[in-house]
Design a protein that fits this description.
This protein is of the alpha/beta class. It folds into two domains: 293 residues, Rossmann fold; 67 residues, no CATH class. It is built from 23 helices and ten strands. A six-stranded parallel beta sheet has the order 1-10-7-4-2-3, with helices on both faces. Strands 8-5-6-9 form a four-stranded mixed beta sheet. The radius of gyration is 26 Å and the shape is elongated. The protein starts with 10 loop residues before the first helix and ends with a helix. The relative contact order is 0.13. The model has no long low-confidence stretch (mean pLDDT 93).
Length: 472
């Protein structure tokens, strides 16, 4: 599976190619508009939505301010309930821990609940290198895996595929991964879902190890929570003998009372449902019910560095609802793959550069993958001011330097000097007016600006001279 994003082009280059894919744009337009309209209706049903939004923001901010305390409390509660907690500073550590845990069971395959954290660290590829096969069980993730593809959306990873493409993938690839697709499979949703159900059932029944993420972790009891819509998660969380959960450290909430807020806001913001279809919760292990061994891998992987940034840390409030993707005009046209990260769209444009740093071309370009229209902030259920963070990260990219940024800085300094000296400004205006017939349509070195914009025509007379002549 092509799950890594190493070596991908910067966002402008990837987006330029994506916008010429008519099928991709049609798929995205239909899906995002459908989801956003349903979400708007679901949110409008709650008179206190703005209060719930503010409550979610405050809970997350409070938790992040005291993250050390709540993580220690979580570890104590998980351990007391029979679980084992592992701490992973980065992706390599997390992958090594999971691989060693699986190998210790003697198994060579695992079933997986849809998990952004395991995609972030490239767990499937790491397990494959150790001779362990990871089977995705979420329908959209299954489509991505069978198609040797990459996810392009937080909630609907296969949003870039239409029904015909999914049918073709099932027909050609299911047999390579297990039970083949039924003969004569059509592209109707019911038949596609049944084909996936039959394909996955044998994996659920024989798997001894399950791997999951978690939407939330409740510190006061050591409880983990997974939201999903298909029931596959329930199978992965209850049938295997060993359960391994890889979760970002920011997913902790202090108490069950805090969780109640997100039980309302997450379903409405993501799937436009009043209540999540399958909400699975587990606390450690039980003698005769569910997995007999539970391991929690707490993942940092850049989160502590993000937490240190007073402006950027608000990205860690994210509850992965994907509402910001569905209203973003840039995402709708460019698609998720152009972001070069498992986290696409507006939230990806601020989260990925902070988790990975802005040293690579793709991460340095992501803060510019936005028109700053603010639609993402308006729909965010935890009030992340994404435009504010984007501007903040653009400043960081500019300060990092590079030839283009040095030239830009020099130009701004020169313009500042001229604007502070009226005589020099007036002389420059007169010179520009008198030489305007010789001005090039696209001045050298300004291609990044003029490629999509027309320079204004210089008037024959400056406003300053006109005012002196007519109003002086």
């Amino acid at each position: 599976m092509s799950g890594t994003y190493l070596g991908m082009p910067s966002f402008p280059a990837a987006a330029k190619e994506a916008v010429h894919d008519a099928t991709l744009r049609a798929n995205l337009r239909h899906a995002t508009h459908t989801i956003r309209d349903k979400r708007a209706k679901a949110v409008a049903e709650l008179a206190d939505w703005s209060l719930l939004r503010e409550a979610g923001k405050e809970i997350k901010d409070h938790t992040l301010r005291h993250l050390d305390r709540y993580l220690v409390q979580l570890e104590e509660r998980v351990t007391a309930a029979g679980g084992v907690v592992h701490w992973a500073a980065n992706a390599d550590e997390a992958n090594r821990i999971v691989a060693d845990l699986v190998k210790a069971t003697g198994e060579r395959e695992v079933v997986k609940v849809k998990s952004m954290a395991t995609q972030e660290i490239g767990l499937n590829e790491a397990l494959e290198a150790e001779g362990i096969t990871a089977y995705e069980t979420d329908l959209a993730e299954l489509i991505v895996q069978l198609g040797d593809d990459r996810p392009s959306h937080i909630l609907v990873p296969a949003i870039h595929r239409n029904r015909g493409e999914i049918r073709d993938i099932f027909r050609s690839r299911m047999a390579d991964w297990g039970r083949a697709a039924p003969d004569g499979l059509s592209d109707t949703p019911a038949e596609l879902a049944e084909a996936a159900r039959l394909h996955l059932r044998e994996k659920f029944l024989r798997a001894k190890v399950g791997v999951s993420g978690a939407n939330f972790m409740v510190a006061e009891t050591g409880t983990l929570v997974v939201f999903e819509s298909e029931g596959n998660g329930r199978m992965c969380l209850t049938l295997p003998e060993t359960l391994i959960s890889v979760v970002g450290i920011e997913k902790v909430v202090p108490s069950w009372r805090d969780l109640e807020v997100f039980l309302q806001t997450l379903p409405r913001s993501s799937t436009a449902e009043r209540m999540n279809p399958y909400t699975s919760m587990w606390t450690g292990t039980a003698d005769a019910d569910g997995p007999q061994a539970f391991h929690l891998v707490l993942l940092d992987n850049g989160r502590t560095d993000t937490l240190a940034d007073e402006v950027g840390r608000q990205a860690l409030r994210c509850i992965r609802c994907s509402a910001c993707l569905n209203v973003c005009p840039v995402y709708e046209r460019a698609g998720g793959h152009a972001y070069g990260s498992v986290y696409p769209g507006p939230i990806g444009a601020i989260l990925s550069p902070q988790l990975r740093g802005i040293q690579s071309d793709i991460d340095a370009s992501l803060p510019y993958a936005s028109s700053l229209c603010g639609a993402c902030y308006e729909v965010c259920p935890v009030a992340i001011d994404i435009p504010e963070v984007l501007v903040h990260l653009r400043e960081s990219v500019a300060q990092q330097g590079g030839k283009g940024h040095r030239l830009e800085k020099a130009a701004i300094m020169a313009a500042g000097w001229v604007l502070n000296h009226p005589g020099a400004l007036a002389a420059g205006e007169r010179l520009a007016s008198r030489t305007r017939r010789f001005h090039p349509a696209r001045p050298p070195g300004a291609g990044g600006w003029t490629a999509s914009r027309e320079l204004p025509e210089v008037p024959a007379e400056s406003f300053r001279d006109w005012w002196k002549k007519n109003r002086g």
